[in-house]
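User: Here's a chain of 383 residues. Predict its fold as tokens.
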Amino acid sequence: MIFQLDKMQKQIRKAVVDFVRGEFKKDLVDDLVRAKVYPEKIWKKSSELGFPGIAFPEEFQGEGLGAFEKTIIAEELCRGDSSVGACLAQAGYGAEILLEYGSGSQKGAWLPKIAAAQILCTVAVAEPGGGSVTTTQTAAVRDGDHWKIDGEKAFVRNAGSLAGMYIVLCRTDANAIAPEQGLSLILVEADRAGIHVSDSGARLGQRQIPAGEVRFDSVCVPMENLIGKENQGIRQLGDFLNHARLSTAAQSLGIAQGAFDRAFAYVQQREQFRKKIIDFQVTRHKLADLATEIEAARLLTYQAAWAVDNDRADARLCAMAKMHAARSAVAVCDEAIQLLGGYGYMQEYEVERFFRDAKTADIIDGSRNAQKDVIIDALIGKK
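Assistant: Prediction complete.
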């Protein structure tokens, strides 16, 4: 299968490249990274080109395009900068749940705000202490015409002052025969009384993306805030994770290409023993291996995106793309540091940060082992 970009997709890629060139100024990015500040102004400017809502229908202020175009954007943003790019690529984290399962009023109220970069979207699933989502303790109990929610969520991406709402995995049936059968997704507006957000703490990578511990103390929301059908949360979350894995694969692909670009530029101008580093065969072969690794990740990621857009969404393929692209990003960034030598450890040369962000992408939305479980379960199911 050949993934040849059409005219419109090439224009989108060029628009992202031009945006990155114009907005990702090194001094500005360095200041944002050093201060661990969310790139709010750049995020809002990205909405002028339609990036946050690229896959939303036009009726919700989107561009009406698909996962493939979204993949291209995430790739080029993270190629430009692994940290700022990841912030923009994950600004609408969870919006696919609303697109697929939200009511008309839910979509109308929230998708235009996400597209206009007025709010960040987020999904609150994991809980302190880890464990499977089927052990979720956060409870939503019927209280008249409201849900009353109590519980705590951990590592909530985009939590905090810029979040507009939380899509929360709650236990709505404590007496379900199987634990996973009693879970639902409920939309909780971020300004509801009883929501308490605290920072998750210092992290290895993606330090500019807000990540918090969110506690819900008797938070009341209307019954109509239920997303889709009651007690279908696990299935809904599973469908969303296909999109999340694909997005992480695209970001990882961009991070790998960005680190490669920087290392490739360095070895072409740096000299050792009166020769350019790129003139040494060992360097040339290493670069050839890295370029091959990146291209393989790109083809797998593009195939997964194509499948989503052609109603062939495949959990196995999305998991493969996420696992391979993230693993490739870590390997490419590691080699980029080696190629730069001592400079590879210096923040000025950026590849050390690309490495940290690559490792974060390798973990979020499921570790390698989690992706392997998805892959093997799909393979067994086809037998």
